[in-house]
Amino acid sequence: MEEKIYFYYTNDLHSNFEQWSRVAGFLKGAKASKTANHESCWLFDIGDHVDRVHPIAEAFMGKANVALMNEVGYDCATIGNNEGITLAHDDLSELYDEADFQVVCANLHNTMELEKEPEWLKPVVHFQSINGVRIGVIGLTAPFNAYYELLQWHVSDPYETLDAYIQSVKQSADVIVLLSHLGISEDQEIARRFDDIDVIIGGHTHHLLRTGETINNTIITAAGKHCAFVGEVILTWDHTNNKLIAKEAYTTDVTHLSKDHSTETMLLELSERADVLLDQTVISLNETIEVKWFQETEMMQKLTDTMKNWTDADCAMLNAGVLLDRFEKGDITYQDIHRICPHPINPCVVELNGDELREVVRASFTKELMELKLKGFGFRGEVIGRMIFSGLEIDTTMHKDGHESVKEVTFNHEQLDPDRIYSVAVADTFTFGRLLPEVAKSETKKYFLPEFLRDLLAYTLRHDFANQ
Known about the structure:
Elements: E1 2-10, H1 20-36, E2 40-45, H2 55-60, H3 63-72, E3 76-77, H4 81-85, H5 89-95, E4 102-104, E5 108-110, E6 121-122, E7 124-128, E8 134-141, H6 145-148, E9 153-155, H7 158-172, E10 175-181, H8 184-193, E11 199-202, E12 213-215, E13 218-221, E14 229-238, E15 243-253, H9 261-278, E16 281-285, H10 298-311, E17 315-319, E18 330-333, H11 334-340, E19 347-353, H12 354-364, H13 367-370, E20 387-390, E21 393-398, E22 404-411, E23 414-415, E24 421-427, H14 437-441, E25 445-447, H15 453-464
Parallel strand pairs: 1-2, 2-3, 3-4, 4-6, 8-10, 10-11, 11-13, 17-24
Antiparallel strand pairs: 1-14, 5-9, 7-8, 12-13, 14-15, 16-18, 17-20, 19-24, 19-25, 21-22, 22-23
């Protein structure tokens, strides 16, 4: 006898609810169909479902996302870095308290003294098919420990974690599934090293594998980002020979499907409740505060000054594109602040010598960087914009073609010393990738959590604009 076993999954929604009611309808329909046919079917999420860029996620600190997953009928989820490092310790500890599904993440550990691991956190969970096939599910998340440890968590090495668990899971399960919020390269390497893993369902790097990828004995799959696609894995188990004989993986574009009415209603209700929760006045303005992406403004200067003082750095630099709109005259609520500065970006202090700092300043004035339409690294805006500085004096010259370049950079009215180390506060966006290589390569990075830039923005408004 042969038995079909089905897994449906989502990954990297990032609280982008535009397609969510379509996703919900598809998943509910798939699960109902398989249940009616007496076939085994489970729904998984691979992390980064929560992203505080959306007012619903912000207002409820991710718990509304969990409620939405409950409503669909998920069976299991692992956590992504957006659940793990954009919430304060207590908020993550309580995030899944009301979850109707299991949460699996073998390499996340609580480091707070005298506090146990959350009851919802499991390293491995097990399911069993209608005809008795045992399925072991392991979860792993990306080890961003520079952030996690400031929040009193630790993420252990994924490979060491698998070494610790894989043999025991092999003994208790016929099929091993890994829910991996590690990224495509790590998934491929795990498939090369661990022959006992049958399926890796991935995320984090937003890769879309329409029909899966097979490495050794493992099928790898992932469904892109924002749930425009929903993933499906189909396993065929031969009960006569007691083994898997087929593994298939597909993704389905759901953007054209009809919306699920009950989910759409729930989203509307959550949106209205979020509006009420975020409708708290931070400050009342007597006049509008302008924001310009490619010009210096009082607002951006004050915010950059706040970041310098907040972090106790020698100097600070912050790109004007982090503020998406101006602040209108009248009451400014936390909802306004969230809309204008929605990014899950934290302040960070790096150490640079004088030559490195001068090069960073020069690079920040290039047209390529200022006009870059960045997607990712926590940035949720349109363009990087002009860099604003605090604690440095920048002397520039304007060329005939409209390009502005740096002539001289001074600190306390003295030229930068190549042998001196300067502490520089930046948005943590620039500590990743190659936007500003000297910043990303700095061997000393101190992140400030759990404050986001918008928390510093609220402080700046209260402190510097209260009488305007």
